[in-house]
Amino acid sequence: MEVYLDNNATTMVDPKVFEQMKPFFCETYGNPNSLHRFGAGTHPKMMEALDYLYSGINADDEDDIIITSNATESINTVIKGVWVDEILNGNKNHIITSEVEHPAVTAACKFLESQGVSVTYLPVNEAGVLEAQTVKQFIKEDTALVSIMWANNETGKLFPIEEIGQICKEAGVLFHSDATQAIGKVEVDVQKANVDFISFSAHKFHGPKGVGGTYMRNGVKLTPLLHGGEQMGGKRAGTVDVASMVGMGYAMHLATTPMALAYEDNHVRKLRDKLEDAILELPETVVIGGKENRTPNTTLISIRGVEGESMLWDLNQKGIGASTGSACASEDLEANPVMNAFGSDSELAHTGVRFSLSRFNTEEQIDYAIEVIVNAVKRLRNLSSSYAYAPETHKSGL
After folding, report:
1. Catalytic option among 26, 109, 168, 328
2. 196, 112: one domain
3. 328 assigned to active site
4. I want to staple 376 with a disulfide (CB 3.0 to 4.6 A). Which of 29, 70, 297, 314 is the partner?
5. How far does CA 180 lie from the centroid of its chain?
6. Residue 365: CATH number of its domain
């Protein structure tokens, strides 16, 4: 049996989404910016896709949603655009983010630091969440942007976006949230959240890879990252990948209906909890960040005495896909930075394994995964020179 439990890295394209995309490869293939019928023929489905995107995040008709190649491009568009508009061409020189952001945010901020921008990296609390009042404490007169993720890609922890958004609004500071791991798992409402920007990627909610979006509140100025054409109203140059845009829109539609979100919150959560509870029955296992306030599909579990990479090897041999954290840093053998942010000791920082489910997982798959995981833990602990198997030391939770 093959069981895919790495859906925070990417998801399979929903077959219904794929069917919507097919005509735009060999039938309705015109450039949407061309004036002839071949180009114009793409417009109805592109407009439908935009309607789905706006509805999925409750964007206002006057707001902008810019189609990009992925969330990484979207994030760089926002952070570097604000750098140009508010810092290079303004009188501000400060950005606030957290210590547990996706590498796309962290790397963009590090680049700005190399250009002389002051960046504050705020710590999370013991539950793995950035407290809104911490953000408020660090906002200064020259703060140009606050960029805080909606949901953590490794722990699934949800951040207090609405509260942070209100704080930024009252302070007159632009607020960006990386919503990549939230859309399709929990409600993402840009009106309630008081965000100026969000970033997202279709392949995280059963859409195609290679397409994402940037939401931009009406009235907010943002210098484009890419120049060279008038596509997207001049906000993002380059011929639009119509098939991918249509696929992302329909994937958003399927993932964000009340029924779909209820399925995530009930069925997917139930399967995640079954898997998690079975692992926690083993001695010295712990859910990083605790069980509360998470997306319903994600768990990051530390298994003392079992190196994460070794566990992934055993699971892969049995047809199970999982990860040790962000896929964008999976080749880096350094200790997991999120676990370091929690203050984990040097041994535990290498033991985290992330399991992330989707609506396509079944109970039969979870039962099989539990059996394989339990056997793998026992085998690897028996091989470990630093772990003494002692059932009486059983721990669970934080």
Report:
1. 328
2. yes
3. yes
4. 314
5. 3
6. 3.90.1150.10
